[in-house]
Amino acid sequence: MMDFASFRMLKIFGIFLISGVLLYNFYIAETTKYDAYGDAAEYVSLGVSLAKVQKYGHLNFEKAGGVIIALQNDCIKNFNYPFRGHSTWRPPVWPFIIAGIFLIFGYKLSYLVVFKFLIHIIGIYYFHASLKLIKIHKLFCLIGAILYGISPVWQLYSRVFLSEPITFFIMTLWMYFLIKYLVDGKGFLLQAFLSGILILSHPYYIFLPFAIWLILFFNKKLEFRSLILTSLVCGFIVGSWVLRNSVVLETSELVLTTSSGAVMAKGWNEDVISKHTNTKGDLANEGLVLESFSYERKPRNEVQMKKLYTEATLHFIKENPDLIIPITMKKLRSAFNPIPETSKPGILETGRWIFQTISLLAIVYILIISKNKLIKSLTLGLVLSTIAITVVTYSGFRFRVPQAALELLIIMYALFDIFKRFNLLTSLKIITTYK
Questions:
Q1: Measured CA distances, 163 to 168, 321, 394 (Å)
Q2: Quick one: residue 38, left, alpha or beta (phi over 0 = left, psi -120 to 50 = alpha)?
């Protein structure tokens, strides 16, 4: 039986635990900030370009030794670098945030680190509020908030400048305002707006809002008028970036990101069946589809390369119909497999696959046993959107990071439902549901 003092001690313990985890990861992120490379450095480069010349692309930092070295040497503010060219390989939300931070506070990577940790603290509040909205007991709300705060999935990416932590936060906000609208009838336009921002933060989730809205509609939790309106608002937000790309890149192609062709090629080639894993899918060789595709060898810009990869991938699928089912099944098994298919050592990596295993069990429980239409709609929408994006491209541990917020909500509701179903809540004397 839990008394008031025990519950209060748990809250105090949670605050200290979260504070310790945040401080430790902040120290790691701050002391390794100049080690950024690859995708992380490219996001920073886009942000610097937006801040310096108001163009979404890259400046030429060759003489400075790269954008990270230029930032380390404090060379950005007082020096001008030539604009190298437009680039829409990456989605725009995180680079625009980076640019805003640099313009307001100055060109210091430390400001980006502080920002990421501040929004995670805010995210804890909104995740706790989401649990309150679905009316589970206080104890589960508190435990859920603590687990959100120390999430090993978030910790892994809190130390780098990738878009996953930002998308994790946006997912949390969107989830909160969606549930708030369904429960209280408030926040409709805000959740619709955030759904578009979610997609522009990480196009991997392009199917998620629509899948969840559609399931909510079929379960009579969302009116048809609301379904259409929220889809239009989301489409307008995403479409505005597509329109911008068409104008700036001077193309008739519908371009969300120019990387979409290469991403598709990574998920559809002859090596997928034997080599694709949930840990190294993004390291696949997209050039394989070009080996059996006839095309003119000549220099191409990003849009032209996107089109080439897309056409080559579709050609591969058309010419290899016998591989469609094996490749699809391989990718789907990988997408829903919570265990790393290639070894990834470390306590946080172990924590990640343990979390994902519990998440998979919770998803199965919700879909088969739970009667809560709201939670079941969120769960089924997540499953269907994962299937859709995996078939079109591929999935992986890194891409799944932002959805950990939604998965944790599913886990906490499943645990609450199990306790309630087996009358285990009677031992939690002081705990009552939120009104």
A1: 9, 35, 18
A2: left
Residue 26, Cβ density class (10 Å: 0-12 exposed, 13-18 middle, ≥19 buried):
middle
Residues 312, 287: Cα–Cα separation, whole Å = 9
Q: What is the DSSP string of 307-326?
A: HHHHHHHHHHHHH-GGGHHH
Instruction: For residue range 107-134, list pLDDT tens digits in order.
Output: 999 999 999 999 999 999 999 999 999 9
* Full DSSP string of 186-197: --HHHHHHHHHH
Confirm if 89 and 42 have CB atoms less than 8 A apart. yes
Q: Is 15 helix (H, G, I), strand (E, B) or coil?
A: helix
User: Apex CA 50: angle with CA 44 and CA 53, to 5°?
Assistant: 125
Both tokens of residue 427? 């031992």
**Whole-prediction pTM:** 0.94
Which strand (E) or helix (H) includes residue 283?
Answer: none
* Per-residue pLDDT tens digits for 177-208: 999 999 999 999 999 999 999 999 999 999 99
C-alpha 87/C-alpha 84 separation (Å) is 9
- Cα angle value 358/210/254 (rounded, 5°): 120
Could you please report the per-residue DSSP string of 105-171?
A: H-S-HHHHHHHHHHHHHHHHHHHHHHHHHTT-BHHHHHHHHHHHHT-HHHHHHHTS--SHHHHHHHH
